[in-house]
Each structure stands twice: as structure tokens, then as C-alpha cells.
Amino acid sequence: MAKTTQYDMILKHLKATKGLTQREALLDYSIQSFPKRISELRKIGYRIDGIKSRHPVTGQRYTRYVWRSAEDVA
């Protein structure tokens, strides 16, 4: 059985949902270097956008990374 890489987990999640934050990556997948993985995926050609937001209650800033498919690019 092939080992699932962090890249595989991130790409599968991004393609299936509305995005992933660093906190979610850590809690759900135990990925500690999430921004680095996103950077590496971008370098090999994946289109991933970072949307900066602020938590409505705590005011803490965060980035939600979202998959940008070929259909999204005009």
C-alpha cells in the first residue's frame, strides 16, 4: 500500500472543500509546516490562492488556502 504524503492530503482536501487553514492542517492532518507545503506545491505548478481573513470573535488574522482550478482562470 502506498504511503499518503502531506501533499496528497492537502491537495485532496483543497479539491473537496472550500479551503484549509494552517490550524486546520495541524489539527486534522498533523501538518506542522503547512505554509511551506503550500509554497512547495505552488513551485511545482499547483494554483493555490491564499485568502487573508480575521476571526470575527477573536480578531486573530489567518489565511485560508483555496484550490484554483483551471476553470477558475479565465
How would you describe what is shown here?
The protein has a 3-stranded antiparallel beta sheet. It has 3 helices and 3 strands. It has helices spanning 6-16, 22-29, 34-43; strands at 20-21, 48-54, 61-67. The chain is an alpha+beta fold. The longest helix has 11 residues, at 6-16. It starts with 5 loop residues before the first helix and ends in a 7-residue tail after the last strand.
H and E string: HEHHEE
Strand order of the largest sheet: 1-3-2
How many β strands by DSSP? 3
End-to-end C-alpha gap: 39 Å
Shape: globular
Summarize this structure as a short list of keywords or feature phrases.
3 helices; three-stranded antiparallel β-sheet; alpha+beta
Give a short overview.
With 74 residues, the chain is of the alpha+beta class. It contains 3 helices and 3 strands; from the N terminus they run αβααββ.
What is the strand and helix layout of this fold?
Blueprint: H1 6-16, E1 20-21, H2 22-29, H3 34-43, E2 48-54, E3 61-67
Antiparallel strand pairs: 1-3, 2-3
